[in-house]
Amino acid sequence: MSESKIDWLQRVADMHGLDPEDIEEIAEMCIEDTVENIAMIEDLSDMQTAIRAAHSIKGSAANIGQQPLSDAAKTIEASLKDGDTGSIPAKLAELNSAYQDFKTLMNL
Fold this sequence. Notes:
The structure is a single chain. The chain is an all-alpha fold. The chain has one domain (5-105): HPT domain (Four Helix Bundle (Hemerythrin (Met), subunit A), Up-down Bundle). Helices cover 80% and strands 0% of the residues. The protein contains five helices and no strands. The protein has helices at 5-16, 20-43, 47-63, 67-81, 88-105. Helix 1 packs across helix 2, helix 2 (20-43) packs antiparallel against helix 3 (47-63) and helix 3 (47-63) packs antiparallel against helix 4. The two termini are 14 Å apart. The model has no long low-confidence stretch (mean pLDDT 95).
């Protein structure tokens, strides 16, 4: 990633009129929630739960400026809504990659 954690926190804080510390706390919650939501997507035994999990990742990541993570979740959500479960493993790999990039940015 080309942007440092401090720069990213400040940029997102400025977008939302918050302090960087607030954004860091929100980002850490997003990371924790994403782990749980990825597990729900991987399960696929309950399609509606998997769709909601992808939607949750998409929205929370977008709200804090993590567009690659949001975009990856968006493609999964669309595929699940279309009933295309065959493409989910490859799309989960993209989601996990974006998630790992986010964790790296946050030094977690």
